[in-house]
Specification:
The chain has an 8-stranded mixed β-sheet, with helices on both faces. By secondary structure, the protein is α/β, with parallel strands linked by helices. The chain has 25 helices and 15 strands. It has 2 domains: 2-7 and 15-87 and 135-157 and 185-291, Rossmann fold (3-Layer(aba) Sandwich); 314-588, P-loop containing nucleotide triphosphate hydrolases (Rossmann fold, 3-Layer(aba) Sandwich), CATH 3.40.50. The chain is globular, with a radius of gyration of 24 Å.
């Protein structure tokens, strides 16, 4: 493995959920420890299952891994860290500032940025405090901070008071209030991250365009702030030997090879390792010891063992949606789970039934025209340009709130406006113009704002309350976009996931986030299911068997209603294939 050649002291693994960061980090820790190095494995991933992988309880304390000499592990609980962090900031102003302003601050501190900064607050000591880490040759981090978080920590000027004075907008400066005491520690931590002699960043991806685009963005973002020692790991590609055994396996191999042959330019120059897809779940020491080894002994389920998946189809969900004749349908989920394709499939199926449909997306990587590859009666398509909408929103905020700020305050505001939350707010405002159409037709929306962003809009008055204030007729009946989203009769939220541990956990967290905003997800869609595709390849059959536990968890624990969409031999591109997609389960069965 290239990323393990002459490794520096700090190794950071980063990538989208479900690509295998934790497994590779754990396998790396084992390999280094068994080579005689003293290793500390640290996880800051909200979806961390390091303890489960090793079969022991770890938690927020350094714990020796009994089965591996010289290896210890630590799980920083980001949610617990974030709660402590929130209490530290909100406590002193509660009862001093108006309740409405305190509520706004609390919502500022409820999002992903707070969780990430709080976790960074915890592990900076591991980067800077030699007394804590002197016993270890290598410290391995499962999940690295984003470039946005690091830029925030590099900003000069006082953060405390900025939010309370109303200078910040509805984004990420709230989490930074009260960090002044740690400025020296953060400065040393950022210096350690940018030092190639001390730190190596490993970008983990799958052989999929979406995850490779994501790591390309991460590469650029971190390189701009000086983190240049980067490696690439392509994880989970199907071995070419499986192609001769199954038409589905052959199609997957062709698809993955095409993706790998067209890597984003910024990734082509990086040292790269390829890890083949394994048939086994990466839990336990034996599995982890084999992960980074090419000659892995394989074991499969019995060829005669049936893998039965006879679950509801996407078409069954569309039947219920269509009965309303109009409404808003929002597809939500983490990147790489197939939201755009499924949004197009739902829209095409509704239009095919003679119902008027407006399909819209804000995904910068969404190529709806390519996915549709044609036209259909009753279907109109639009795309909101996130860059243009965000830039317009930034300029508006800078011209209003930023007009009276000094140079330091304006620098804080400008960085605040570069956060992911800002884009969600700007795009949602553009979406809001389209949402009104849902009273007369179906509006199918791809890439929706998170519950945190929606609450942020509501709590700060950036949209929902702003409309109320601007109304001249106080007796006029008002239905804002937020109210429409909270009404299940008007809006149906479909959560998209994969039948894998991390994507299901991320969808579960998203569902909790939406519920906190008063939005109840209507259904879940499990996309690209190998089990539902009835494969013949031994490796794919084993992977299909592994999916059954996650499908059962969605069916019995997480979802009120759900559908399963199989992994297809051919990409669902074109109106014809999209129409087939919604009823594919019945065909597969």
């Amino acid at each position: 493995m290239k990323f393990l050649e002459q490794p520096p002291r700090f190794l950071f693994f980063t990538g989208k959920g479900g690509v295998g960061k934790t497994s590779i980090a754990c396998a790396t820790a084992i390999q280094l420890a068994e080579a005689g190095k003293r290793v500390l494995l640290v996880s800051t991933d909200p979806a961390s299952n390091v303890g489960q992988v090793f079969g022991i309880n770890i938690g927020n304390r350094i714990t020796a891994v009994p089965a591996v000499d010289r290896l210890s592990a630590l799980e920083i609980d980001p949610q617990a860290a974030a709660q402590v962090y929130r209490d530290r900031i909100v406590g002193p102003v509660r009862g001093v500032l108006p309740d409405a302003l305190v509520k706004g601050i609390e919502e500022q501190l409820s999002g992903a940025c707070t969780t990430e900064i709080a976790a960074f607050d915890e592990f900076t000591a591991l980067l800077t405090n030699e007394a804590l880490t002197t016993d270890y040759d290598h410290i391995i981090f499962d999940t690295a901070p984003t470039g946005h978080t690091i830029r925030l920590l590099q900003l000069p000027g006082a953060w405390s008071g900025f939010l309370e004075e109303g200078k910040g907008d509805a984004s990420c400066l709230g989490p930074l209030a009260g960090l002044e005491k740690q400025r020296d520690q953060y400065r040393h931590a950022v210096e350690a991250l940018a030092d190639p002699l001390r730190t190596r960043l490993i970008l983990v991806a799958r052989a999929q365009q979406s995850t490779l685009r994501e790591v390309a963005r991460t590469h650029d973002e971190l390189a701009k702030i000086g983190i240049s020692q980067q490696y690439l790991v392509i994880n989970g590609a199907l071995p070419l030997s499986e192609a001769a055994l199954d038409p589905l396996a052959a199609a997957i191999c062709v698809r993955e090879q095409e993706v790998l042959n067209t890597l984003p330019e910024v990734l082509k120059s990086l040292p790269c390792d390829n890890l083949a897809l394994k048939p086994f779940n990466l839990v336990g020491l034996d599995a982890l010891r084999h992960l980074l080894v090419d000659a892995t002994p394989l074991s499969f389920i019995n060829e005669d063992q049936k893998i039965t998946v006879n679950e509801p189809s996407l078409s069954s969900l569309v039947d219920t949606i269509a009965a309303d004749k109009h409404g808003l349908v929002m597809l939500m989920g983490k990147g790489g789970v197939g939201k755009t394709t499924l949004a197009a499939a739902v829209a095409v199926e509704l239009a095919h039934r003679g119902l008027p449909v407006h399909l819209t997306t804000s995904d910068p990587a969404a190529h709806l025209s390519e996915t549709l590859n044609g036209t259909l009666d009753n279907l109109t398509v639009s795309r909101i340009d996130p860059h243009a909408e965000t830039e317009h929103y930034r300029q508006h905020v800078l011209e209003t709130k930023g007009a009276k700020l000094d140079a330091a305050g304006r620098a804080l505001l400008e960085e605040d406006l570069r956060s992911p939350c800002t884009e969600e707010i700007a795009v949602f405002q553009a979406f809001s113009r389209i949402i009104r159409e849902a009273g007369e037709k179906f509006v199918v929306m791809d890439t929706a704002p998170t519950g945190h962003t929606l609450l942020l809009l509501d709590a700060t008055g950036a949209y929902h309350r702003e409309i109320k204030r601007q109304m001249s007729d106080k007796n006029m009946r008002l239905t804002t976009p937020m109210m429409r989203l909270q009404d299940e009769k008007q809006t149906k939220v479909l959560l998209v996931t994969l039948a894998e541990t991390t994507p299901v956990l991320e969808a579960e967290n998203l569902q909790a986030d939406l519920r906190r905003a008063g939005i109840e997800p209507w259904a879940w869609i499990i996309n690209n299911s190998i089990a539902a595709a009835h494969p013949h390849s031994p490796l794919l059959r084993q992977r299909a068997h592994n999916e059954l536990k996650e499908i059962e968890a969605v069916a019995k624990k997480h979802a009120k209603r759900y559908a399963v969409v199989p992994l297809l031999k051919e990409e669902p591109i074109g109106v014809g294939r999209l129409l087939q997609l919604s009823a594919q389960m019945e065909k597969a069965a």
